[in-house]
User: What shape does this take?
Amino acid sequence: MIATINLKDLIKYLVGLTIVIVGAIYSTRFFVNKNENMQFSIIDMNAKNLIKSNINIANYEEENASNNQEKQNIKKSKLLRILSMELPHLEGMEYNDTVSELGETDEDKEEQENQRTTTQIKETYTNTYGSVKIKNLTDIKLTEAILKPDYNVKNKKDILIYHTHTCESYTPTKENSYKASGNFRTTDLKYSVVGVGRRLEEELKKYGFNVKRSETKHDYPAYSGSYNRSLKTIEEMLKKNEKAEIVFDIHRDAVGSTSDYAPMVEINGEKVAQLMFVIGTNDGGGKHPNWKNNLKFAVKVQEKANEMYPGLFRSINLRSSTFNQKVTNAASIIEVGATGNTLEEATASMKYLAEVLNAVLNE
Assistant: This one.
């Protein structure tokens, strides 16, 4: 009886509190001026973007889950993602036309850039091969023979670049501000991860490589199914470039789409975004005969990078999904920085990546 009475009292209290809060909100909105009403509108818009972003991350994980049980667990987590999201992250939202209408000046933007704070996540790994670190997220037991970088690539001149998540973007700056189409996403490809691919192409061509690149949007307007759509793109590219073996799917690390995580390294006095190989396997049951050679190639590149520019790469991320890497024997995902990085930092790392690739492919 006591428990029942307490529960009823609690319910009454919560209902009353809800009425008071709702009343306060509507009273406040009634008295706010036009400028404040615009701010409410922006909060509503950004909240929708944040909810969509969290659902997109869950969809991405569900799409690449290795089994049905994992898919079910991810489905259950979608609501938890929304309930647990932190609205303060909206403070780091992209500059756009709506924000500018509130009177934000170039000086305000410059001050925000100068005050930009970034965080680093402690690097973890399960295996090493010489100086190369590997984070093995599969059930595959890695041996020295598997990791030995005796990769097999005959064509070392043709390189293909595409983007499964074409609209991924970075923390905006005064020089590179853009209109957002979502949380750290934009359909203006000049400011998305496509800009990083363009810079990599430019740098590789300086060394005489033949580079073909696609800017096809695979994650807009729908995010779910991105890998199915990008598979068609890379297969079409390979039909036109039959001898190509080296394929890079350039991404930006999501890491929960937080606004402050920015993996960086300083090279020659310049702060550049760190890179990370993501290598798929057949551990999830997918047909993927090339995964070992893909891994060996990544180990070789990272081994050379550690020699030339220590810290340029984070640990290789070995996953159960295939990530379309079955298409050739030297295919990989390269994550360039994260949401907290700027486009300037991401593109700056491409000249060092190109130099490393040139050294590896001309040995």
Summary: The first strand starts at residue 127 and ends at 129. The first helix runs from residue 2 to 31.
